[in-house]
Structure formats: structure tokens, C-alpha cells
Amino acid sequence: MSMIYQELFEVGPETQQMSVGVRAFHHPQLTSLAEHHIHFMGVSEARGQFHIERMGAPFHILLIGVEGQGEIIDGERRLTLGPNQLAVLPAYGHRGFQRRSEHWRFAWFLLDDVPYWNKLAGADASVVSVQYAHNLFYALHTLCFEARIKQQSQAGSALQLVMTLLQRMLNGAVQSMALPDRLQQLFSGIFYAPAQSWRVDVLAQQYGVSAAHFQRLCIKYLGATPQQLIIQQRMQRAHQLLSSGNHSVSDVAIMVGYEEIASFSRRFRSHFGLPPGEISRAQHRKCADTHPSVTPN
What we know:
Helix 6 crosses helix 8 and helix 6 packs parallel to helix 9. 41% of the residues lie in helices and 24% in strands. It has two domains: 171 residues, Jelly Rolls, CATH 2.60.120; 108 residues, Homeodomain-like (Arc Repressor Mutant, subunit A), CATH 1.10.10. It is of the alpha+beta class and 297 residues long. It has nine helices and eleven strands. It is globular and about 65 Å long. The longest helix has 21 residues. A hairpin with a 2-residue loop joins strand 6 and strand 7.
């Protein structure tokens, strides 16, 4: 399998990670991973800078959210990964992930693109609800420690437990795929019409449940409250509009449903960690570098 691909890997020192891999350059190395067609796997406690993107990577990626929130990058699409959710990033394509909450705890697997993992292949990344994410996280955490022990290591037993828990999770995820997809589709409409007055009770009515039950479903399957999901869609749309370089901050604020620029700016900074004006300035600098002015002699 060719391992030539493009990668953006920005992980700051605040993040703590444990891992085990099949190759000689992995530390620790566990050659028995080859029997399961696993290239690399581990657990992460992401804080500070954490942003990874790959283009053309010849392996599938599984991310299992345990605490906090991350964001899945799938070309131009963005998906939120919350607790007890599983993200599948199929091999190849332009995909990645980054931290969204202050602290993001998750487990991850890099799986070979072979027939054994064919059910993970596809054109798009996806996020589904799962159970017992903590169990898999701590089993994998234990494996990473056991693999470092030279004598009387129980890495083989730990690996078997990890694989059993992973297969249980994948089987359950297939069965529960429809419900989170329906919820996600309901909120995706906000991205294309962010200025509308989106109300939680109306969305709950459209889904066919009470507002209280709707909130419980969103937290369980999407990892956030309905109001937080509405804000996420508006902020993602605002970021896209600002990145185009065709709109001012005040224009974008109105376009995504904010009457006050100050309120929009505070929300944008809270969501992305930088003011909206910085996005506009960065885009203008990029345009200036691409199309420099020419002064006649």
C-alpha cells in the first residue's frame, strides 16, 4: 500500500496522546495489528492547537468522541462530532478533523483500505450515534500501556478486547444510523437560510416530538442542544461568507440573522477563537498577494 499523501498536522504541546502502530517507526510497535489490518490507533486529549487534514490518504479513519466536541472536515462539508458519536472518514479524498471545545477526548483508528474494512468505504464522511464510547477509549488506553511492557505484557489480550468492543460499536452504529441522519438533515437547512427566525419548538414540531424530547435527542445523537446546533450552522455560514471576501462584517451579521454587529462579533469570536474582521482581512491579504497592483514607471 502506497503511503504517499498530503498532510497538514498542527498539534500543539497541550495535547496528550497515546498510540500503538504496526510499522517499525511506531513506538510502541505491535506487529499483531497487521492481522486486523490496522495501521495506527490511539487516544487523544486535545487542547490548544489541534488541526489535522489529509489529501489522498490510503486509509480509513474512525474517530470516537468521548468528551467535548470536534469538527470533521470532509471537503467543503463540516460535521460536528460529540460524545458517544462515531465519525467515519473513508480513505482518499480531502478529509480531516479539529478541536472545537476547550477539551476534546476521543479515540481513533487508521485502518487499511482492504476488503476487510470495505463497509467503511464511501464517497462522504459520516457521523453516527454509538454506545459505550468510554469503554472502547479506556480499553485502547490500556492497550497502549501494555504494548510498552517488555515482559509479561498483556497486549494480546488487550488488543482482543479492543477489537471486540470496536466490532460491537460498528454493528450498533449501522443499526442506529437513520436517527442522527434525520436530525442532522433538519439542522442543515439553517446553513442555507441562516437569517430566518429558527425556533427550537418549531424544529421539534417538524421532527414530530415535543421540545423537551427534541432537546434530549439532539444532545444524545448530535452532542449539543438544539440552540447550540442552530448557532453552529449560522457561524459556519458566516465563516463561509467572510472567507469569500465579497461581504463586510456588518453585511454578514445581517445575512446570518443578527441585528447587532457587536453581538455577532462576540458570538463569532467565541465560536472560532478570532474576530470576524480577521477572516476578512486575511482574505483581502490573500487577494492582494494573488493580484498585486502594478504601478507604471
